[in-house]
Amino acid sequence: MGSPPGRGRSKRAHLVRAALPCLALIALKAAPAAAQTMTTPDLFNPNRGGFVAQQNLPTRKTTTDTASTIDQPSVPGSELNKLKEPPPAPTRIGQLPSYDLKPASGAAASGYDSLNRKRTQPKYYPGQARPKRSPGPGTPPPPTPVRSSTGQPPPIAPPPSVNAAKTPVPPAMAGNVPGQPPRRRLKPDDDPFGAVGDYAGSFLLKGAVELSTGYDTNPARLNKPIGSPFYMIAPEFLAVSDWERHALVADLRGSFTGYTNTLPATIDGAASPAPVDIDRPDFTGHIDGRLDVDRDLKLTSQLRLRLATDNPGSPNIQAGLARYPVYATFGTTVGVDQTFNRLQLSAGGTVDRTAYTDSKLTDGSTSSNDDRNYNQYGGVGRVSYDLKPGLKPFVEVEGDTRVHDQPADRNGYFRDSNGGYAKVGTSFEFSRILIGELSIGYTARNYVDPRLSQLKGLLTTGSLVWNASGLTTVKFITDTQISETAVPGGSGVLVRTYTAEVDHDFRRWLTAIGKFTYGTLDYQGLNRNDKTYSMQGDLIYKLNRNLWIKGTLRHDILQSNVVGAGSQGTVVMLGVRLQN
To answer: What's the average model confidence in pLDDT over 48-57?
Structure first.
């Protein structure tokens, strides 16, 4: 189908118009024809700068790129193209890409494993602490650290370099060996210069010894003083169990005082009322045990020993002695403690034995003291009630009987007796500032011999500790005892003592102790009453936990209603204390 006549004529007219100008230009420029060429050999090189010089590009390359194309015009184009062309890529047919990572290797022992393999469970040594499991989904995130009132962020942990300069500690000492049982946690020690002790199994052992020397103006407590230098050795031993249940405590303390001078055998033409050799031993020890049957029932026991001599100046001392006779009092107590809610019941039986050594006289003979030996059997009961925290009132009753080895003593008196006491009091503790126990009661003892009157009197016992401040402590102690006597006509001695003591630390290593003691000795049946006063001051310088230096100054006064029985004496002593 042909085109319309009008459209054909129009196309031919356009061609004629375009051909006429071309023929005119050919006629005007009659020059020979030539092919178009380029000034650069990189005609088919598809690099930037192939048609335009590098220095004329609007985005000119750096010096390195410019030198790679301009500074090498002598290299043929084919060789230059070979240098610029990258090496052909290796074939990938039949090869799998390797990225040096195994499948699911990032999961390790936890996390998602695409191969569904069983996770390796961590191994723990025996006794090693197991980490706690995560609570699971929905656990709230950890709280955001709260800034302080000053706007500063909370302190962060010190960097590892803080510990890097310290002396390395073996893992066994640091307690971080896997499977190692935890080390024993020591109890807080309020005394920075106190004895630390050593552990032997489950027992804490502490030992000490004091070595002292000084001068006593009246060691025998005579009416006419005779002084003498002296030395004293005082060992101590303490063993305390560290058990969750039951308990065992051994407390042993002793001393020996030796005097370099001896006293004359006669004074004013009569036998001396004091021994020629006035050396004196002293020992006090007890072992306490507790067996916890259950929470409310406990079995208690005690073994005790007291080794000493009669006090200097006592009327029980014979005239003409070569040395003091030594006596020993030893015994045991077995009891039970039962608790009913706030009510506590305690009961126990006691057995004690007192025995004296024979007296050695200045003439070389000996005198028996078997008439002073006796056994005591008794029992004690106590009822207490926790009225409120820190206040526990109680009632205590004791009864005993004393049986002598010989029915009559050297003067023909029958001294077997029965006695006891009853007292009421309370123990208290107010915020650890004021603690103690106070009681008051009445005691009485009846003798077989009708010539011996009843021994009776008011009974006061107690101890009070007041922590006035962190450096000052005040103590008050009172006690009442009934002692036997060998003086003809005397029933016994009712001894009461009251002691007030103040301890003050000028520094933690410098301590001063002031003590005042007042006592009364009532020799019932003899019409004799003695009063004792003792003022003592101690100054302790603590070099370290193992070595102390101690100085003591004491003045003793004995006043009596019997003529010639009073005495005074001053003691000055300096010593060291070694402890562990």
So the answer is: 48
Find the radius of gyration of the CA atoms of the chain: 53
- Provide the 3-class DSSP secondary structure of residue 569: strand
Q: Are 317 and 262 in contact (CB under 8 A)?
A: no
Strand ranges in 160-246 using DSSP code E only, listed in sequence order: 198-200, 203-216, 228-241
The pTM assigned to this predicted structure is 0.67
Does pLDDT of 442 surpass 70? yes
Binned at pLDDT 50, 70 and 90, residue 122 comes out as confident
Compute the distance between CA of residue 423 and CA of residue 446 in angstroms, rounded to an integer: 18
Place of tokens 């205590």: 396
What whole-number distance in Å separates Cα of residue 459 and Cα of residue 38? 137
Candidate from 7-16, 254-263, 264-273, 319-328 with smallest mean pLDDT: 7-16
3-class SS string, 111-149: CCCCCCCCCCCCCCCCCCCCCCCCCCCCCCCCCCCCCCC
Q: What is the CA angle 27-28-31, rounded to 5?
A: 85
Neighbouring residues of 341: CB distance < 8 A, sequence distance ≥ 6: none
- Say which residue, 108 or 385, is predicted with more confidence: 385
pLDDT at 343 over 90: yes
Residue 323 CA to residue 271 CA, distance in Å, equals 13
Bridge partners of 292?
298
pLDDT tens-digit map of 489-520: 899 999 999 999 999 999 989 999 999 999 99
pLDDT band at 98 (very low <50, low <70, confident <90, very high): low
Residue 438 pairs in a beta bridge with 426, 462
And the tokens for 48? Answer: 């930037």
Reading the block at residue 363, the tokens are: 């003439």
- Could you say which DSSP state residue 403 is in? E
pLDDT of residue 572: 98
The amino acid occupying position 437 is E
Cα maximum dimension of the chain: 186
Cα torsion through 96, 101, 107, 113, rounded to 10 = 10
**Gap between the Cα atoms of 201 and 561, Å rounded:** 57
Amino acid found at 34: A
- Taking the chain, what is the end-to-end CA distance rounded to the nearest angstrom? 132
Interatomic CA distance for residues 273 and 508, integer angstroms: 46
- If DSSP codes are grouped into helix, strand and coil, which group holds residue 412? coil
SS3 state of residue 468: coil
Q: Look at residues 453, 459, 461 and name the one whose alpha carbon lies nearest to residue 523.
A: 453
Reduce the secondary structure of 163-182 to three states and give it as a string: HHCCCCCCHHHHCCCCCCCC
